[in-house]
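Worked problem 6 (solution included).
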Amino acid sequence: MKTLNFITIFMAMLVAVCTSKNLEWFRQRPNNKPNKLPAPTENEIPDYENVLKIFKQVNGVPRPSQHEEKMGYFLVDFAKEHDLEYVMDGKNVIIYKEATPGMEGTPMITLQTHQDMVCVAKDGYEIDFLEQGIESYNDGTYIRSKDNNTSLGADDGIGVSIVLAILESKTISHGPLECLFTWDEEQEFSGAIALTPGILKGKYMMNIDWETDGELCIGTAGGLDVAANLAYNITETPSGYAAYNLSVSGLTGGHSGVAIVNGGSNAIKLLGDFLATISDLRLAAIEGGSFPNVISISSKATVLVPEAQKTEFETKWETYVAEVKAKYATADPNMELTIVETETPKESMTEVQTKAVFAGLANAAQGVTEWSETVKDIFETSNNVGPITMKDGTLNIEYLVRGFNNDNIAKLADIIISGFEGSMVGFTTRKYGAFSPWNPPLDSALMNYARNIYQEHFGKPISLRKVGGGLELSEFAVVYPDMQFISYGPTVNDPHTINETVEVKTVKSTWEYTVELLRNIKQLEN
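Solution. The predicted structure is:
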């Protein structure tokens, strides 16, 4: 087993550094590949039920962002089982399928989805996302995680399942296909960035990672991660201090590029804003949030205040709770804020460093910082804080800044950084994970073709929409300037939360749309 793992890793490393010409040599070819695919059925669209079946299989595979190894092996096994050529380019997987009879002269199409998912669990629900898959339930209208215990993984497991169903089908007409399954889309676009230059041969890319049925994406925000780290001084707690456990929970949360416009709160920000108003404070523990692209739904802290200020502190907390509950009554109706006096910890952070932590948190705005003047209900720039951790003498705070202008993104990131570095207590900061906005031309041949096919099949025009989330197409467009792109998909509600669902009827329509796009591709070339 150890030998096999070493060989697999070694081959993946070789593939990742080879030129695109040499990569052809590493394509894994099935031993018993049929000479010719059977002739497809021209008119009938295969039932979409197979997509749902495959989705259940995909959800059985653990695949948190940056830990997609098991998903990669699942995809390779799928390719082998169906006698399809494949390449492992690092942790990216590309599966190829030849053109069906009569479609051999059409251009290669790249179908693109991502392997990973944002793993979020209900407070108190125990699950090891590295080892356990997602249990899901289909009520005929929606698919959701069982008992809403975790996020569902429809982003982008349902896109993966649609592509695998295409690869498995023997009755759909299509030209030559290369199907790209990237890794770590949700956090840093690592797979898209690390993809070997020149490996893709498709002329047109169809990304199935959009989250509203009946729409084509016509633009996405860019973004930049910011981290602030403090190697804090662990000191003995002076006498005369009382300790309190504060908590915020029950927030609605959501995708920080989509739900951020809904006006909801962030649990870390709520605690930070309150504690920034308290003098003579010492911090003993704090944690909250899960990922920078997820609006934090819960956070908790253990803080110390002088015994003489206990009554004042408790009164301020009660007033603050009433204010924020009223402010966010609509967006976060299930918000809970609690305070419990507890045993005073023997060690805590100094008052000076504690003040700097919460001043930094209070300094950086949460949510939409500027609204778009040209597109309704979308931000121009936004910010989300989370996660925050405090362990073994190190405090870490992460942010994800999004926007449609790189200069504005950089300015907001600098404001966050100045709030921490300006305290002069030892904060270090860094920027990472930058990705650019994507603004495709609306009159490209592929965009026009996609709009026409939708009109012909569904009898109505497809909608066009720009959104604050990010897509890997922004990276591909830079490396492949001559490639044309579209993005679409079924309706996924509340992604990145335990309330995530996918609407079953939209899986059907997205499946039909994909089939129509593939089998009518000759129209695109004419």
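Discussion: Residues 310-327 form the longest helix (18 residues).
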